[in-house]
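Anyone opening a protein record will find just a pair of labelled lines. With that in mind, the following record should read easily:
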Amino acid sequence: MKPVLEILIPTFNRTESVQEAIDSVLACEDDRLTVRCNSNGYNPVLEKYRNLNNRVKYDCFESNKGPHANFTKLFKETNANFCMLLSDEDRINSNNYEDILKYLENLDSSISAVSCSIHNIGKPEHFWKPIESFSKFNLNDFVSISPIPTYMSGLMFKVDFLRSVHIESFYKPSIANAYPHIDLTLQLLTEGMMGFYHGRFVEKGEDLYFGGDGHSHKNKESNLKNSNTDNNDFNPLIYGPKARSRQFFYRESLLGNLKSKVSIIPMFIGKLNYLEFHYGRIINSHKDVIIPDNTNERDEALSGFFDSKENGEYSGSIVSFLFKLLLVLPRFISNPIFYLLSFFNKLMRKAYMLNLHIFRKKK
């Protein structure tokens, strides 16, 4: 019999934390819930999980192949009815696992993806929670409202739907491809719907400032979190202004490919959502990454546009042109325009949400 749910944990250079993540799943002691972990590099400490029992599957690459290869391997090898992504920083609450298994066993067959609440360990408040007034979203709703975080933990897929797509096409190694799990969700929603789970199952662990993809440019000993600065010192290849520019054009183009399946207004809102997210992070990138003093953030972001154009990621749409314009114009002009666009987009999202509340009943 297939497991109901398999937890997928990609890991890199976080030995202690990933063991706690795996053990939190095994603590549930139920054959319906399993865990699959792959390490981006050989780790002798983690080899104990390779033949531990039938509830854990462990493997590794001999050397670091990057996060995209890690995700692809886990998705292609999972054999449960549902799979869920879990960061190696986070944990499963073993006291409430039966509730989510019951939820999945009775889930509407149209649901292809589920977004779970993420709770803070030992605290009543949420790290993040999905919209509570709706039980499911269609593709237009998802594009307009952006109801899930960029954070991967708690994102769940129905494996039958997952098998219908070419996983490698969503996990191409590129600095432009930073959120493939969200782009994959979009594709799955062309054939199904998104459900929401609000129970206490996924728990946010302590933020680690080494290892993983976000901190792969650092090592544990010399680059622990500096309490004297607000800068997160993320990997500039992912969180720097050039990368953020590439990410916008790449994702905007992917979204545009769904124009035959997404209505005009949700499509426009969705593209503005991308603009608001990525340009907002470009102008605040100094909070995420350490930028050398002689680096011009605007020039870096503009070089990202030229790279995107060279790689065929620039769609030439109205919103992509607006984004390019924000990069070209002087900051004292572009920033006010951005804030106006952002305000307008928030109004459009609120109007769309109001429409949902008025014309749809919670099921």
